Amino acid sequence: MTVAPRRKRRIAADEAHSWARNLRLHNSLAKLVLSMLTLYVDGDGACFVGIEALAEDTELSPDTVRKRLAWLEQVGVVARFPQWLDGSGRRNGEGRGKRTSDEIRLLLDVDPDTIEARAVGDSIADGAASDAEISPRSQQGLNPPGETAGPALALGQPSSCSEGSDSSNLNLKIPPLPPLPGGTCGDNHEGEASEAKEASESGEIEGWAEFATAFEGDDVPMMRPSIAKTVFAALSADERRRVTRAAVGLVLHRTKDRKPGAKPSAQTFIREIAAWDSWVKHAPPEPVAMMTFVRGSEEFRAYAVYSMIVRRLVITADSVSVPRAKAQAPEIMALAQFADAHGHIDRTNWLHLDPGDIGDKQRIAAWRERIQRWTGYWIELESVPLCEADGTPKVSIQEWNGQQLTFPVKRDMLIVPCPWPPRKDGTILETTGPPAQPVSEDELAELRRG
Question: How many CB atoms lie within 10 A of CB 64?
Fold first, then answer.
């Protein structure tokens, strides 16, 4: 039974706002910024808004908004990716055009308990930020003399001038930073590495284990893996595959270089989408996933006809292997009806399309375009002997050296099982005109907009 693909999840603003509202961050200003951020969310859970707009919405300074966004990113609530505007005004992450505001993705699929643990300082060391980055300035009178965390407010200065007037902002527990390489805190570093390894093996984030293995292929351990894992969670499935391929290329290039430079951190490497393609070029070709079908199956019959059309070869083996990407494409599966139960084909009953006929010329063009899309090459016509009305072969008699020589009359034709190639949905048309291409949802929306 064929299982219908799941419809893509669409994120609504009310869902994002409810998610932000239920997070216990113990940081009122950061939660205010996050709540305002959810007003700009699109269907994919991404926000495109400038710092100035958020500052106006929250009535905070741009510097405060910037710091709170950095804190939200460190505890795993959001992930930021650089964006550019090209000459046509289209946003992209490949570095084309002029730099613009970052794309901020809400990490709605991350476990809220993990986020809240990091927010109160109970996470592992690499999820923490420095005191200057996330700690608000304290107000006068909140600390005993001699223990003031910041300068006292000037006389008459309003309390709103101090960031983090809420006492919840002053009780953040900042875990210690990870030890420097070569330091004496080797036990902490080993614990961090083992915890990151356990997180990778747990399979919480699809594709993370593959990326971590590829990135550490040169035996250089990943620093602060929990931050990198948070940024990785914000990527789509295709982006995760691309960044993993880019990591393979990065490691392969470093192993070939006699004096490799400093290796970028994993989180920086993931964020720099514009650099992925340059590293993918250094990666070896991806192995093509194959599927095998045995004789008697519907898939075997379909690919027996497919082989006869594009290669004019008979499959004599009892099984056939095809790339998984197009293994069960509806337009190819529709060809199964032109073979018997065992995959045998009677090609004598197929249509002979003559390029000299106006109607057949259109059909030949349609079949050639479809075969080129399937295989990547332009199929040539084959020389076919012509027959008289009674079925006897047509011959041409020529004299040479006093002798009469008989030659069969041939013409270049295309032999196919049906007039038109199957449509993408598997429909085979027997009409006298070219098949109408289905209109996609994007094209339909464009027509409605006028």
Answer: 21
